[in-house]
Design brief:
The complex is a heterodimer of chains A (about 260) and B (about 600). Chain A is an alpha+beta fold and about 260 residues long. Chain A has nine helices and seven strands; from the N terminus they run H-H-H-H-H-H-H-H-H-E-E-E-E-E-E-E. Chain A has a five-stranded antiparallel β-sheet with strand order 6-5-4-1-7. In chain A, strands 2-3 form a two-stranded antiparallel ribbon. Chain B is of the alpha+beta class and about 600 residues long. The longest helix of chain B has 21 residues. Classes of the chains: A alpha+beta (about 260), B alpha+beta (about 600).
């Protein structure tokens, strides 16, 4: 009986590993990265000379190579802001923040541009505990978290191996290291799991038109609930054809045209 | 004029509580004959099981001729009823809805019908006629403004002249002028105490009180200054109207024919025009409107570098006090200037409020030299000239001699200024020549990442198992022998193979025999060496070995004995057959043991 269970776990783990392997994304090729880097550097030079239109074109070309780099998104967002496109600027600041949640420049510019748009869409008020949790949650990116958890996991078992051979003098220290590594891993894992879930399932949109109507259903025949303006951020609940079901930070929701939004 | 407090019931008063009614209402009026400006009260008393918060106000018609102030009051009582021998108790709330009414014009006015409705209860309490007789005001209030048009922030004088007649006492202005004035003006009363003075009015000496208030308009456009009510008490003698009340005689007895009536005189509202400030204001203009002057002086004109001097700037003007802010200092590049110590004072000059603000700067020269400092300036709007102006000081001259190093100066004041933003913008783009990378290539999507988690647990598991097995074998010799039987067998078979290679038949069969006997001994933990074949078979049988295996065992051993001692087969084929037979036997034994 036990053998059969063992086989089942092995099969499940193998299936999970295969599924994860199948998730491997097709990132930009080395050649594309090289071309995008060249465009990026030229765009930076144009920006320094306040030729924002040229800089914008070059940043766009680099992005079209399939490169997702937070610096590229940040600089492009700056350029869009200079070109008086606050909605697009917010979209690319959000994209940059998604890749590098710790970047202070991104957070500052996002606050700055958000303060200039028409709609104020404040997030629900949070208490000290949720603020602290949110700070800890956003203290590292997904890849940083994954490296840390792999390191902690290895440290945990390395300490366990050494404990088998260590004398009484070192055994206490090794057990303490195991406990600490285990606790850190326990604390890190939920945040990391949430981030991966957010990455895979949650999607946000930014209004790119000067004004967009929010309907009570996916069509213009439905009641207009409100009007939202350029730069307003939504959570995208689901997409139905040319319509998107969205939810605002304050909990209000409705449907907007897909064409009026940019997806983060 | 009616004196005292008379309660005259209205024509229809409520017949209280029908047995099961839960609400009852009745109305009363304090007086039906009053003078103009004399307040009186209409009270509707509602008795119910409910508290006043849930009760609606009565409906009273005919109040438009009066100035009305409303108030309520509630008392609680308990009512015990005995009916058919049963005692019941309930709480009752008596709520008084009080209308304080003041008529400004004479005439006879009907108050009512007075109706009260609550839930299923409805009652019409009828109406009452009130006769208002013209009464010469005991007090006259005359408002005046120094200007009927002004700029925003310009100082105006509002004078409320109160002219009391004989018998007036206890004159009071409303406590909360802020509600009446404060929404449209910043204001301040000029005099703490209002003293009576005598002025000539129409050639006669009249005793008056002037209440002076300075106003600074806050909003442009046509502004109306509401009338300010003045409360007072009128004491009347021998002029009392007889009401026919039985209480009249008590009034005469107790008050010696005099009565005291609370009265209110309302000053009429005044409107004025407030203009916005014209043109573009200077950058350092902070809203000061009026006439301003500025003086600046220093406490020493000669000092050593590193020592401190005090620059005192005084700004004086009749604009709104809080609009005076720091003055514009001249270029003091060769000096270190610290945040000033600020003091403010106000004084009344004639009918004007004058504010004086003093800024004391500590200034430390860096280098020796003779310096002529440009004037200190303050921008304001001059309403007389209808233009922006600048109050300036005379230039200042300072002679600085060689002194101590700034950093070593003991006189240096270490107060520091906050770094403040004077503009805001987004942060600049990120530079650097580092190549771009794909940051959306997340590790969890790579198989190799998950393999990183396997080496240490696998190593731990293997090491743990090996160590456990080693410990177990070390403590159990039988098990160790049985476990190592395979290894021993391999060693012996290797010896047999060596002998085979050397074509040494004796050694080959010896090694083969030792391998078979040794394997059986190790597996069963019984020494088979030295046993006869029959004894060995008996041992094997005891352990449940099949007859076929035992036959094979006997056959192989006989073959080995023959090979060793009987000059058995010398050809390679026979040796191989012997080796195969031994191998077959060992497999059978391995399965069965």
């Amino acid at each position: 009986m036990g053998r059969f269970i063992g086989k089942s776990i092995v099969l499940r783990v193998a299936a999970l590993l295969l599924a994860l392997a199948s998730l491997t994304s097709a990132s930009a090729s080395p050649e594309a990265l090289k071309r995008a880097t060249k465009d990026y550097q030229q765009a930076n030079a144009a920006y320094e000379k306040t030729d924002f239109a040229k800089a914008g074109d070059l940043y766009r070309r680099a992005i079209d190579e399939g490169v997702a780099d937070s610096r590229l998104y940040f600089n492009y967002a700056n350029c869009l802001f200079r070109l008086n496109q606050p909605g697009m600027a917010i979209l690319y600041y959000e994209k940059a923040r998604k890749l590098d949640p710790n970047d202070e420049d991104v957070a500052y510019n996002l606050r700055f541009v958000n303060a200039q748009i028409i709609d104020k869409n404040p997030a629900p008020e949070s208490n000290a505990l949720t603020k602290a949790l949110s700070f800890a949650h956003s203290a590292f990116s997904i890849n940083e978290g994954l490296w840390i958890s792999a390191g902690l996991f290895s440290l945990l078992f390395l300490a366990a191996i050494l404990t088998l051979f260590a004398g009484p003098a070192f055994r206490g220290a090794l057990i303490a290291a195991m406990v600490l590594a285990g606790l850190a891993l326990l604390a890190l894992t939920p945040s990391l799991a949430f981030k991966i879930k957010e990455q895979e399932t949650l999607q946000y949109g930014i209004v790119l038109k000067p004004a967009a109507e929010m309907f009570s259903g996916p069509g213009e025949t439905f009641q207009v609930l409100t009007q939202v303006h350029e730069g307003t951020k939504f959570e995208i609940v689901e997409t139905r054809g040319d319509w998107v079901s969205v939810k605002l930070a304050n909990g209000k929701g409705g449907f907007v045209r897909l064409a009026d939004l940019g997806k983060v | 004029m009616v004196k005292g407090f008379h309660w005259i019931c209205l024509a229809v008063l409520a017949v209280c509580c029908v047995a099961r009614a839960e609400v009852a209402a009745e109305a009363s009026i304090s007086s039906t004959q009053v003078g103009t400006g004399e307040p009186f009260q209409l009270t509707i008393q509602v008795t119910s099981d409910d508290k006043s918060e849930s009760l609606p106000w009565p409906q009273v018609d005919g109040l438009e001729k009066f100035t009305v102030a409303k108030s309520t009051g509630t008392t609680q009582s308990s009512q015990t009823t005995i009916m058919n021998g049963k005692i019941s108790n309930r709480n009752l709330y008596v709520t008084n809805f009080i209308y304080t009414l003041t008529a400004q014009k004479p005439g006879t006015f009907q108050i009512g019908p007075i109706r009260y409705a609550y839930k299923t209860y409805e009652k019409n309490m009828g109406s009452a006629n009130v006769t208002v007789v013209k009464q010469e005001a005991g007090l006259t209030s005359q408002p005046s403004l120094s200007k009927k048009s002004a700029f925003i922030g310009e100082q105006l004088l509002y004078n409320l002249r109160i002219i009391p007649a004989q018998g007036v006492q206890q004159i009071n202005l409303p406590q909360d002028l802020q509600k009446l004035i404060g929404e449209k003006f910043w204001f301040q009363r000029l005099d703490k105490n209002v003293e009576a003075k005598v002025v000539k009015i129409n050639g006669e000496n009249v005793r008056v009180f002037d209440v002076r208030i300075v106003l600074f308009p806050l909003l442009p456009g046509k502004v109306e200054l509401s009338g300010i009510p003045v409360d007072y008490q009128q004491v009347s003698r021998n002029q009392r109207r007889r009401t026919g009340s039985v209480f009249d005689m008590f009034d005469d007895q107790f008050f010696n024919g005099a009565s005291v009536v609370n009265m209110t005189a309302m000053a009429s509202p005044i409107s004025m025009e407030v203009s916005p400030l014209p043109g573009e204001a200077p950058a350092d203009f902070t809203g000061s409107v009026g006439e301003y002057s500025l003086t600046a002086n220093i406490d020493k004109t000669s000092l050593a570098s590193g020592d401190a001097l005090t620059l005192t700037v005084t700004i004086r003007g009749d604009g709104e006090p809080k609009t005076i802010t720091k003055p514009k200092l001249p270029d003091l590049g060769q000096f270190e200037v610290f945040d000033p110590e600020v003091s403010t004072g106000s004084a009344v000059q004639g009918s004007t409020l004058v504010t004086t603000k003093t800024f004391k700067y500590v200034v430390v020269p860096h280098r020796k030299g003779d310096y002529s400092l440009g004037p200190v300036a303050f921008s304001y709007f001059d309403p007389a000239k209808r233009a922006y102006a600048e109050a300036k000081s005379q230039p200042l001259t300072i002679s600085v001699t060689e002194g101590k190093e700034i950093s070593a100066s003991p006189n240096r004041i270490m107060s520091q200024r906050e770094i403040t933003d004077i503009g805001s913008d987004i942060r600049h783009i990120k530079g650097g020549s580092a190549p771009l990378r794909s940051e959306d290539d997340f590790l969890y999507k790579h198989f190799w990442y998950w393999l990183l988690f396997s080496p240490t647990p696998v190593a731990f598991a293997m090491i743990f198992l090996v160590r456990s097995r080693g410990r177990k074998l070390a403590g159990d010799a039988t098990l160790k022998r049985k476990t190592l039987a395979g290894a021993q067998l391999k060693r012996r078979l290797k010896e047999a193979n060596e002998a085979l290679k050397q074509r040494n038949a004796r050694e080959f069969y010896k090694a083969l025999s030792q391998a078979v006997v040794g394997f059986a001994s190790d597996k069963l933990n019984v020494e088979f060496r030295g046993l006869t074949v029959d004894d060995a078979k008996a041992q094997l049988r005891k352990r449940g070995i099949s007859e076929a295996s035992m036959t094979e065992y006997e056959k192989v051993l006989q073959m080995c004995d023959f090979g060793q001692f009987g000059g058995g087969a010398r050809d390679e084929k026979a040796w191989k057959e012997s080796l195969d037979a031994a191998d077959n036997l060992l497999r059978m034994l391995d399965r069965e043991l």
